[in-house]
């Protein structure tokens, strides 16, 4: 993550800004809003300032301005990308003004966050094409009617050379080099282009232009988010608070969700695939997905978790999660159809007469189970099947290569035509 001692300095320089502001009461409604703000977050800085902003907003009736900036660097989004968008929607539902900022200017620089080399800037044509897709996909999470859409070229292009020089004068090279990725690249002898120093400055200037009260981002954006606080203070504004969200684990429950790791759920995938993939996650990972992806309240999730701990089938909760997420991106009818398809595959969607296999050794790894049942010839074949989405257990696509099955009876499908009903004993 790109945060070091500069972050604490960026915070401490402006801690006194709230001290002289009028004090508003922290009502129950404010405390509830604060709890919603904190749900699933990595950090909320400074938390006391955010509570004060929420209290002021409730007392005055003036909504807070909440900013999320995304550079349109790729045309598609998976569920991991929606974690921050979900937080925006929660804050939007509290009545605040959310701003979806398209970084059409900053994309021409290239975000150096977490990079060990210079990121190639995008062409204008790539940016415009990707931006259209981002807006369409973001609208599946945010309420478009209550979302302010902005492009940072609005204020960045008019800056010109003189304005850019004046902006660059507000931050030192020494403080910029405290940033981990710049520090590491410098000491490794890896080139750092001068224009890369402009990226956090321009992202921070976005907060000045938008008069943001809060900016959201991933954990790797912490330095850039705090830059917004620094520059707002330089321009005489009340500094924004910053909120970072964690990275969502993929279907394997270990690595972060990523297309390259083939452990992702794309929001443009068909409803049946999305539903089945969500049902394939582990019972433990399910609660992480509920926290970061579901719009259910924490009280609802806690009650559901208590029911599972008391003996209710975890699959019931997983179906609820899969139904909610699939309906969000495909509609309620498609989610119901996907559930019906899953049930069909788990029950009547298999031939009447399939081999019956009895095995022992539960819990047994999926590779060993398939080899011992004679459904595959090698463990490598199992890995290829999982990579290609060609392995199902009880109708659900298996994505976790380290999956172990407990004692019980399972319908296993390999490819389109190979089936077996496997009874696994301890």
TrEMBL record:
<keyword id="KW-0547">Nucleotide-binding</keyword>
<keyword id="KW-0648">Protein biosynthesis</keyword>
<comment type="similarity">
    <text>Belongs to the class-I aminoacyl-tRNA synthetase family. TyrS type 2 subfamily.</text>
</comment>
<keyword id="KW-0030">Aminoacyl-tRNA synthetase</keyword>
<protein>
    <recommendedName>
        <fullName>Tyrosine--tRNA ligase</fullName>
        <ecNumber>6.1.1.1</ecNumber>
    </recommendedName>
</protein>
<dbReference type="GO" id="GO:0005524">
    <property type="term" value="F:ATP binding"/>
</dbReference>
<keyword id="KW-0694">RNA-binding</keyword>
<dbReference type="Pfam" id="PF00579">
    <property type="entry name" value="tRNA-synt_1b"/>
</dbReference>
<keyword id="KW-0436">Ligase</keyword>
<dbReference type="InterPro" id="IPR024088">
    <property type="entry name" value="Tyr-tRNA-ligase_bac-type"/>
</dbReference>
<dbReference type="InterPro" id="IPR024108">
    <property type="entry name" value="Tyr-tRNA-ligase_bac_2"/>
</dbReference>
<dbReference type="InterPro" id="IPR001412">
    <property type="entry name" value="aa-tRNA-synth_I_CS"/>
</dbReference>
<dbReference type="GO" id="GO:0005829">
    <property type="term" value="C:cytosol"/>
</dbReference>
<dbReference type="InterPro" id="IPR002307">
    <property type="entry name" value="Tyr-tRNA-ligase"/>
</dbReference>
<dbReference type="InterPro" id="IPR014729">
    <property type="entry name" value="Rossmann-like_a/b/a_fold"/>
</dbReference>
<comment type="subunit">
    <text>Homodimer.</text>
</comment>
<feature type="short sequence motif" description="'KMSKS' region">
    <location>
        <begin position="256"/>
        <end position="260"/>
    </location>
</feature>
<feature type="binding site">
    <location>
        <position position="259"/>
    </location>
    <ligand>
        <name>ATP</name>
    </ligand>
</feature>
<feature type="short sequence motif" description="'HIGH' region">
    <location>
        <begin position="72"/>
        <end position="81"/>
    </location>
</feature>
<dbReference type="InterPro" id="IPR002305">
    <property type="entry name" value="aa-tRNA-synth_Ic"/>
</dbReference>
<keyword id="KW-0963">Cytoplasm</keyword>
<dbReference type="GO" id="GO:0006437">
    <property type="term" value="P:tyrosyl-tRNA aminoacylation"/>
</dbReference>
<dbReference type="GO" id="GO:0003723">
    <property type="term" value="F:RNA binding"/>
</dbReference>
<dbReference type="InterPro" id="IPR036986">
    <property type="entry name" value="S4_RNA-bd_sf"/>
</dbReference>
<dbReference type="GO" id="GO:0004831">
    <property type="term" value="F:tyrosine-tRNA ligase activity"/>
</dbReference>
<feature type="compositionally biased region" description="Polar residues">
    <location>
        <begin position="1"/>
        <end position="10"/>
    </location>
</feature>
<keyword id="KW-0067">ATP-binding</keyword>
<comment type="function">
    <text>Catalyzes the attachment of tyrosine to tRNA(Tyr) in a two-step reaction: tyrosine is first activated by ATP to form Tyr-AMP and then transferred to the acceptor end of tRNA(Tyr).</text>
</comment>
<feature type="region of interest" description="Disordered">
    <location>
        <begin position="1"/>
        <end position="24"/>
    </location>
</feature>
């Amino acid at each position: 993550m790109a945060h070091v001692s500069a972050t604490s300095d960026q915070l401490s320089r402006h801690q006194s800004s709230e001290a002289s502001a009028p004090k508003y009461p922290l009502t129950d409604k404010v405390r509830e809003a604060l709890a919603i703000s904190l749900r699933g977050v990595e950090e909320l800085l400074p938390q006391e300032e955010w509570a004060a902003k929420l209290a002021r907003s409730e007392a005055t009736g003036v909504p807070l301005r909440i900013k999320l900036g995304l550079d349109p660097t790729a045309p598609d989004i998976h569920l991991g990308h929606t974690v921050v968008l979900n937080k925006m929607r929660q804050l939007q539902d509290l009545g605040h003004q959310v701003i979806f900022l398209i970084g059409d200017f900053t994309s021409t620089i290239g975000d150096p966050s977490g990079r060990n080399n210079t990121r190639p800037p995008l062409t204008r044509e790539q940016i415009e094409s990707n931006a259209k897709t981002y807006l369409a996909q973001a609208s599946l999470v945010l309420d478009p009617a209550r979302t302010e859409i902005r492009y940072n070229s609005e204020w960045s292009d008019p800056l010109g050379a003189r304005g850019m020089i004046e902006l660059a004068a507000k931050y030192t090279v020494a403080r910029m080099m405290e940033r981990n990725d710049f520090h590491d690249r410098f000491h490794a002898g890896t080139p750092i282009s001068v224009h890369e120093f402009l990226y956090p400055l321009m992202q921070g200037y976005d907060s000045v232009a938008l008069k943001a009260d809060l900016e959201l981002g991933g954990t790797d954006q912490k330095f850039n988010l705090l830059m917004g606080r620094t520059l707002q203070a330089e321009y005489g504004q009340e500094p924004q608070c910053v909120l970072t969200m964690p990275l969502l684990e993929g279907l394997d429950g270990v690595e972060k969700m990523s297309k390259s790791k083939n452990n992702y759920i794309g929001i443009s995938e068909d409803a049946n695939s999305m539903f089945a993939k969500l049902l394939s996650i582990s019972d433990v990972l399910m609660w992480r997905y509920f926290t970061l992806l579901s719009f259910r309240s924490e009280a609802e999730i806690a009650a559901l978790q208590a029911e599972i701990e008391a003996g209710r089938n975890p699959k019931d909760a997983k179906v609820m999660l899969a139904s909610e997420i699939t309906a969000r991106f495909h509609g309620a009818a498609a989610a119901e159809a996907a559930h019906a398809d899953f049930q069909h595959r788990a029950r009547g969607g298999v031939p009447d007469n399939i081999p019956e296999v009895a095995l022992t050794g539960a819990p047994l790894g999926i590779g060993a189970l398939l080899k011992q049942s004679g459904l595959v010839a090698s463990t490598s074949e199992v890995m290829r099947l999982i990579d290609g989405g060609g392995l199902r257990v009880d109708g659900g696509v298996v994505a976790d290569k380290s999956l172990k099955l407990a004692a019980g009876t399972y319908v296993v499908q390999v490819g389109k035509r190979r089936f077996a009903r496997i009874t696994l004993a301890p």
